[in-house]
Amino acid sequence: MTTAASALPSGPRRPADAALAQLGHAAPAPDPADASAHSFPDGGTWRTEVPSVEGPEALATVFKEAGRLDVPIHRISQGSGVWMLTDAEITEMVESCAELGAELCLFTGPRGTWDIGGATRSDSGGGGLRARGHDAVAGCVEDALRAASLGVKCLLVADEGVLWLLHQLRTRGELPADTTFKLSALVGPVNPASFAVYERLGADSINIPSDLTLEHLTEIRRVSRAPMDFYIEAPDDLGGYVRLYDAAELIRRGAPIYLKFGLSKSPGIYPYGAQLRDVALNSARERVRRGRLVLDLLARLGADGGLSPLGSRLPGPLRRFPVTEAPDTSDTSDAATGAAPKKS
Question: What is the pTM of this model?
């Protein structure tokens, strides 16, 4: 006798599809036109990321818990910034990640939310995380150069000007050619046009806000193949969304995509210091456990295929704005040189 469950087509299924079909509430079949046509260079469609890992101790906690729960980790990201870590701490994190085939991504700083400007703390949010003025831009570039010299191959950026400058430095060989740039979730694009602009400015993976719809992902994929970064569970300052049951569809529509194991209802820890140690370590463990929940759900639905091999990190060929010679910014006006104005 054929049951409703055995009559279903093979391959990934939707949550409770057989039970709901028996009650007359079957979901419509997925539209093949919604599926992403892209993948990572290794052929995978998704990778994993544990964010907000703020130092060597938190990193060790993440790797220990990942080993215990069998959670594969492609990328570790940090939010406080390169400038909040000593050279010895960065080196320890680089070596630990290399041993386990995980990419380490450190944030460039400073950023507007820690600056003296009050607009970032107003209802409007002002300029947000962007680098305010030349000195903040210079600090971000200095962080990038320092991190790269210590073996960091991925840098997190929250300013489009900084992103473009770092991409130019990479193109000119001042940063290693295999350095990748990841766009912060707090400045992430919300439409296909802006997503494509960030790709052209040099972004190698782009955080998009976790409240975008599945249709929004499809729209973005029709114009760009740059990897997306997506919080399956978002921190409270990003909305606190929990989208575990969307994971399979996020992969189908958004590939290539990094599934980020965030944590809602958890205190902010940026900039991190020893005063936040217990919070940082406890939340690090729980982020890994949240990752295990996502992996288990994908496995139950038969949607866990397509995971990139551990150690994979490069995004493949992407589209860029052309990099030209640096403009001459010297001021040769009469006012600057002190020369008498020329007669016309």
Answer: 0.89
